[in-house]
Structure formats: C-alpha cells, structure tokens
Amino acid sequence: MLLREKVCVITGAASPRGIGKATARLFAEHGGRVVILDLDAGQAEAAAGDVGAGHLGLACNVTDKAACQDAAREILARFGRIDVLVNNAGITQPLKIMDIEAANYEAVTDVNLRGTLYMSQAVIPAMRAQRSGSIVCMSSVSAQRGGGIFGGPHYSAAKGGVLGLQKAMARELGPDGIRVNSVTPGLIQTDITGGKLTDDLKVEIAKGIPLGRLGVADDVANACLFLSCDLSAYVTGAVVDVNGGMLIH
Ligand code: NAD
Is 155 marked active-site? Predict the structure, then answer.
C-alpha cells in the first residue's frame, strides 16, 4: 500500500488499454483515491467505476486552462487535497516534417505540452499549501532519440518540451516540497498507434530492443507508482526510461 489515502489525479486515463488507466488501477491497488480526467465525462466516470468504488471520473480537456482549474476545484471540494498528478494525456500523429500543418502542430503541442503546463498550474497551489506533492510528466523516447516509431517531429518536439518544463518545475517547486519527474516510455502497446502496430511490425521492432519485447501499459504504470510514492522521496528533476533498452544513453 504505497499510496494509502493519497489523492491521485491522472489525465487521459479513460482509454481502456492506455497507460493512464493501467496507472489508475495500480494506484487504486496501492490505496490511492484516484481521479480520472479525460475528454468525455461518461468515459471518465466509467473508467473510475472500473477501478473500484470511491474513485472519481471528470471531464477535463487539458488544453483548456479554465477546465483544468474547474477540475482541481472540484477534486479539492470532494477530497480536500491533491497529492499526485500524472500528466498523461497525449496524442500523436505519424507525419513527416514537410507534412506538418499549423493545425497538426497546434493539436500535438497543445495536448502534450500546454496540457502539462495547465494541469500542473491547476494543482500547484494546493500542493504548495500542503507543502508536499508529486507531479509525473509523460514524455517519450521520441524526445530523446529524435522520433519513436509512430510520432512525427512535432510529437518529438512536444515531448522534448515536456522534459524542459518538468525540469524547470522541479527546480522551482523543490523548495515547496513538490517533486516533478518524467517517464520516457519506449513503444508501449496501447491504442495510441491507431491499429497500425501489426504483428509483423511488432516482431521487427522487438529485434531492436535488448529485452526482446514491446512494452505494456503496466510497465509504465509501475514507474509512475515509484515516482508518485515516498520510495522516490529524494528524486526530483529525474527522467526514468521505460523502454526495454531501446535507447541506452
Ligand atoms: P491512449 O491513446 O491510449 O490514451 C490517451 C488518452 O488521452 C485518451 O484517453 C484520450 O482521450 C486522452 N486525451 C487526449 N486528448 C486529451 C485532452 N485534450 N484532454 C484530456 N485527455 C485527453 O494513449 P497511451 O499510449 O496510453 O498514451 C498515454 C501517454 O503516454 C501519452 O502522453 C503518450 O504520448 C505517452 N506515450 C505513449 C507511448 C506508447 O507507445 N503508447 C510511448 C511514449 C509515450
């Protein structure tokens, strides 16, 4: 029970096979009170129900600052505190550099980077008042190696931006007792790839991974648990690779 009575907010956690939902399930198993934020209220509520009784699902588009602040207000009204935020909501697009239009750039940087900023801003006042908190940001191996496999250059840029934002927040918020870390997953089998991950492609990709397999959502959830609980009490500004050795640096 590593998160007993901790209020844990996870964005983009309604997707059934996603990293956010796996993280929500694991946090609940460890005694956390989980709040699932996602675009659709019904899906967020259903996902919270799947995780178990006493958890909360709310609609929140992380690109909308007012929506993030409303969500934080509602969580504080219900539970009185916010201990953990996992900035997990993200989208990708498999585009080449010359095919990126303004709308592509805006969509991808807005959800991944602006969303991380707005949702963090929404919870920081409560964490500051508590003088404790842990924020986990979801970057990607794509930020580190210049592309994962499915994301275009705008996705790499957004996820690189997440790392800069996370490290700057860690530096600024450390004196308030708030830790801020990132996870950089490799290729994880979720629905973000939109069905483009065929069995043949999986075999091909696994050949380049020292641990010999693609990742699963629970692999990333386990890293989020470590960074969210007191096992990582002296860890801030860190980036944890969860990529099976796809990138060793
Ligand atoms: P997913 O598509 O299964 O889940 C993403 C969730 O984000 C969905 O539930 C979606 O509704 C939600 N979302 C999208 N836009 C939103 C918005 N504006 N506001 C709130 N919620 C929004 O994807 P996943 O693979 O579980 O990805 C989770 C995170 O992990 C993302 O940030 C992704 O970039 C990152 N990541 C994934 C992989 C991978 O291989 N799957 C690798 C590296 C990083």
Answer: yes
